[in-house]
Amino acid sequence: MSRTTNSNLSRNSLSFLTHDKKGILLRLYIQPRASKNEITGIHDGTALKIRLTSPPVEGAANSACIEFLADILEIRKSQLEIASGKKSRIKQVKITGCSFKEVEDKVFRYLSC
Q1: Looking at the DSSP assignment, which residues form a beta bridge with residue 51?
Q2: Which whole-number Å values give the CA distances from 50 to 21, 22, 54, 97, in the listed order?
Q3: Domain ranges of the chain
Q4: Among 16, 50, 70, 71, who pairs with 27 as Cys (CB 3.0-4.6 Å)?
Q5: Are strands 47-51 and 38-43 parallel, antiparallel or unpaired?
Q6: How far apart are CA 106 and CA 84, in angstroms?
Q7: What are phi and psi of 82, to 5 degrees?
Q8: CB crowding 72-105: b at 16 or more within 10 Å, else e
Q9: Which CATH superfamily does the domain covering 6-112 fall into?
């Protein structure tokens, strides 16, 4: 697994973020049962790696993922939907109601800290 760090991060490296006319898709790699909720970098160059404290049972990690992303992106939870991977560590989350540029800026800012 490779991890993108602040020194080698650019907007062009946000390959985990795409958009079409239906909305914005964010590809994630989820690590459940972590010590805290956080974005830790980019997993294998294709997914944003997120560590969550919730266990991967009965949708707890999915709910925590939506709540965490809503907080990071400063949007309502209803604007986020797990489009694929509900029972997998690799997920695609669909984002609606905001522009691609807004999401890109917020993710880039969080990763640059």
Answers
A1: 31, 38
A2: 26, 24, 12, 22
A3: 6-112
A4: 16
A5: antiparallel
A6: 22
A7: -75, 110
A8: bbebeeebbebbebeeebebbbebeebeeeebee
A9: YggU-like (3.30.1200.10)
Model pLDDT, residue 50: 96
Q: Which residues pair with 27 in a beta bridge?
A: 92
Q: Find residue 43's DSSP bridge partners.
A: 47
Rg (CA), the chain: 13
**pLDDT, position 21:** 81
Give 49's contacts (C-beta < 8 A, 6+ positions apart): 3, 28, 29, 31, 39, 40, 41, 42, 43
pTM: 0.85
